[in-house]
Design brief:
By secondary structure, the protein is mainly beta. 8% of the residues lie in helices and 44% in strands. A hairpin with a 2-residue loop joins strand 11 and strand 12. The longest helix is centred in the last third of the chain and has 8 residues. The N and C termini lie far apart (54 Å). The N terminus is likely disordered.
Length: 200
């Protein structure tokens, strides 16, 4: 009995789930997020931000479990954000987040990766103006892209998106390609994931 070699990444559509522990053997992951922005005359540049919520077994996110541009690393080292790309639209990954599932504390049950538009209301911007958005998971030990999620769904007035959620289930790590839009930007997502403290 032998394993069939898989050279192409697993392509997921919205709502699809995958068992990372069994189907990809992923433990040390680079989550790459990319997007393009439709520029209109006189409009300010878009600044899209990727953030992470580490949700505990009480369905809450502690302040140190909120990883974003002002808090780039979890104390355990399980999530490390590579920093904010103020422009985006490079064609490749615009922001990258490293996740080591072997370091995730036992009380963390869910890791949500989200994308929001900075000052969206002030700049009159929304995800209806964003295209070619994607999320990909790369095995950092082999540098191989294992999972690709095309998030090019037609959003309209939303200013935040839950891209993916990685969660524990029966001893395995699984991933849900969520692709759900939110109004209210980052504050609405903080509330959704049980983070009571305001972000800075």
């Amino acid at each position: 009995m032998f394993e069939t070699r898989r050279d192409e990444p697993i392509n997921l559509s919205k709502g699809a789930k995958i068992n990372l522990s069994k189907e990809t053997k992923l433990e040390k992951i680079m989550v790459g997020l990319g997007w393009g922005c439709q520029k209109y005359t006189g409009q300010e540049d878009f600044d899209l931000d990727a953030s992470v919520f580490l949700v505990n077994n009480r369905k809450r996110t502690d302040p140190d479990g909120f990883i974003f541009y002002n808090n780039l690393q979890h104390p355990s080292g399980c999530v490390v954000h590579q920093g904010d790309d103020l422009r985006g639209g490079s064609g490749g990954d615009d922001e990258q987040i490293f996740i080591d599932l072997t370091l995730v504390p036992d009380n963390i049950e869910r890791i949500a990766v989200v994308v929001t538009i900075f000052k969206a209301d002030e700049r009159h911007q929304n995800f209806g103006m964003v295209d070619n958005a994607f999320c990909r998971l790369v095995n950092t030990e082999t540098d191989k892209e294992e999972v690709h999620f095309d998030m090019s769904e037609d959003f309209s007035v939303e200013t935040g998106i839950v891209a993916i959620e990685i969660y524990r289930h029966n001893g395995d790590w699984k991933m849900d390609a969520v692709g759900r839009g939110f109004n209210g930007g980052l504050m609405a997502l903080c509330k959704n994931y049980g983070l009571e403290a305001e972000y800075r």
